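Quick question, first post here. What does this chain look like in 3D?
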Amino acid sequence: MGFHQKHLLGIEHLRPEEITAILDLADQYVDLNRREMKHSDALTGLTQINMFFENSTRTQASFELAGKRLGADVMNMAMQASSIKKGETLIDTALTLNAMHPDLLVVRHPHSGAVDLLAQKVNCAVLNAGDGKHEHPTQALLDALTIRRAKGRLHRLNIAICGDIAHSRVARSNLILLGKMENRVRLIGPPTLMPSQIGEFGVEVYEDMNEGLKDVDVVMMLRLQRERMDGGFIPSEREYYHRYGLDAAKLANAKDDAIVMHPGPMNRGVEIDGEIADDINRSVIQEQVEMGVAVRMAAMDLLARNLRASRAAQPVEA
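> Answer (accepted):
Ran it through. Tokens below.
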């Protein structure tokens, strides 16, 4: 399939052909998920552990459903009540996990780099379900699949990412992926919500929504991540919606067939107008949720193939 990674820790490590390999397999899983019988045996005999150190609804449910549809034994660890709260270090947690012999480990963590550290210490495939402000690779991949299915391609598109760029791992992963696939990316938002190193990404930056949305093919809205803010980044939600919330008037600047995206959960009337979010002709927000299950199935399937191949190549101990 052209995918050779041991882990899925971020988009940064993936080559364009590996991104395409995941999306191509995910397309097949979309078809499977729309059938009456939705099960595959790709992960039969394997154990998947989901460790979410941050609360999550969509991502955790999506990974759990993906694993079960592929035939894995799936366990969700309640990290809010775990030994981490009693002082156990992440390294000790990794050693404990190793003793359980999992095959796939799905981790969401509030600190950037924590998932990578775990991957160095465990003897299984690790999938990053979001680490701090660093990356959220499967979200970017499901966004890419949604765009490719809606537009028929994933290159040479004009794509606007709007809102809280500074605190968003979704934005970072999408920036990297869309850049690798030769798209023209614009960032739109107030200066207070732009990362200081924005010049490194080679993108266009706009403060004005009307100007930034002109003739774009894709409008990707972001959630205001108040849990990561420690100051007055916006004057008020009402003022933010007036300037940066997506409504019909602002969307009119985009191409007539432009699609609207949002990773969820949405703050209606703050980041996006409810009528736009529910517009079946423009919004692909529900499609994003559907694509999420298929992309996570594809990612775990490909990692499991590499894991099995690696174990088969190891010499048998006497």
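Residues 285-313 form the longest helix (29 residues).
The radius of gyration is 20 Å.
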